[in-house]
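User: Predict the structure for this protein chain, please.
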Amino acid sequence: MHKEYLSKNYVEETRFGFWFLRSHTWQHHVLRVAINDLRSLFSEPLPVAPVLLDAGCGQGKSFRLLQQVFAPKRLIGLDADPHSLELSRAEAQRQDLAIELIGSDCATLDVADASVDILFCHQTFHHLVEQQRALNEFYRVLKPGGYLLFAESTEAYIDTWVIRWLFRHPMHVQKSADEYLEMIREHGFEFGPQNVSYPYLWWSRSTDFGLLERWGVRRPKPFGEREETLVNVVARKPLAGATQ
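Assistant: Here is the predicted structure, written as structure tokens:
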């Protein structure tokens, strides 16, 4: 692990955000739900004993869930923040998991070409300034036929007063769900409607966190009539290894 690795290609989290990433809400209502949803979006059987890269692993709270769902033979955690990696190491030790940790930015992955079967990128991309470069790197390190598991909050969620007050993000790179999907497809990844979901969860409605709907004051807008705040996609690098 490169303990002195620093990067300007991402925006660091606030103190509140750093605390939130250790919370029960994050682990059970965000991470667990996203991983289970991504698992359901596969059109083919899961890779057997895959090499799995968690790009932007943060404090390592995803490790146990990824191990349970995907049973990787190698689980790699990558993050640009040295303190997060130290916490990831401690988390892996608590869970008795063999994790390889790498200090590296998503825009310049310190990972070999075509060496990864599954790349998990959860709620990391909206922190990245160099999003195009990061997707190029994701494509590069995945094996032909490898999978990108992409789970993100959209601009409709990030650009709200609650989130802007509590967290810190590069606002000029935030995108809608459709814009994220278009960018992923433009970088050579393949996916269909069956590989995409638009979760509509209470915590992703930052204006009222779904309280008005739970109290019966109003009914939630149906899909197609609302601005999506979350998008999940399982996208595949073509088996033929077609160039972008």
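The longest helix spans residues 24-40.
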